[in-house]
Amino acid sequence: MQIIYLLLLALMVVGIIGSVVPAIPGASLILIAIIIWGFVKGSFADVSTPLIVTGVVLILSIAVDWLAAYLGAKKAGASNWGQIGAIIGLIAGFLGLLPALPVGGPLLGILIGPLLGAIIGEFLYRRNLVLAVKAGIGIVVGSVVGNLIQGLLAIAAVVVFLVTTWPQVFGT
């Protein structure tokens, strides 16, 4: 049973990473791991607190993701064109469709794609490069801040799980 527990903790670590890195599942992986642990234990009584906390974290993560990007875009004066461009840039960057990136692959594309997409989207809308760059940076900064907050929330959910279940599994 300890091996399963450790494997589920590894899945949770991937969930923490996914909370910070776009395109990788985050809090949902942590929630899935807790549900699996409930089935393994045969009772959800032991994981009710982590399950509730992680459910709240998942809802908060979705809200933070949307709100951070929105506030970053609004603060920088971005339009919907910039936000749509950032999403398209994220997808293109993740899939490696940015031919100007000779190294770095999808991870670098995930970082650069949204910025380029937001700038292109804003430029198409405003026809002003300075405003487009400012809006693109605002969108990306908002998203990065949101991802960092999501990462902290995911860490908190895993810590609650560890505190409530570790003594049951390892007896310490």
What can you see in these coordinates?
By secondary structure, the protein is mainly alpha-helical. The protein has one domain. Helix content is 82%, strand content 0%. It contains 6 helices and no strands. The protein has helices at residues 2-20, 27-41, 48-75, 80-94, 105-126, 129-170. Helix 1 (2-20) runs antiparallel to helix 6 (129-170) and helix 2 packs antiparallel against helix 3. 37% of the residues are buried.
Please estimate the helix content: over 70%
Listing every helix as H and every strand as E from the N terminus to the C terminus, the arrangement reads: HHHHHH
**Percent of residues in β-strands:** under 5%
Estimated radius of gyration: 19 Å
Secondary structure tally: strands: 0
**How many separate helices?**
6
Low-pLDDT stretches are: none
Query: What is the arithmetic mean of pLDDT?
Result: 84
Distance from N terminus to C terminus (CA atoms, Å) equals 16 Å
Largest sheet: none
Which overall shape is indicated by the principal axes computed on the Cα atoms? elongated
Q: Structural class of the secondary elements?
A: mainly alpha
Count of separate structural domains: 1
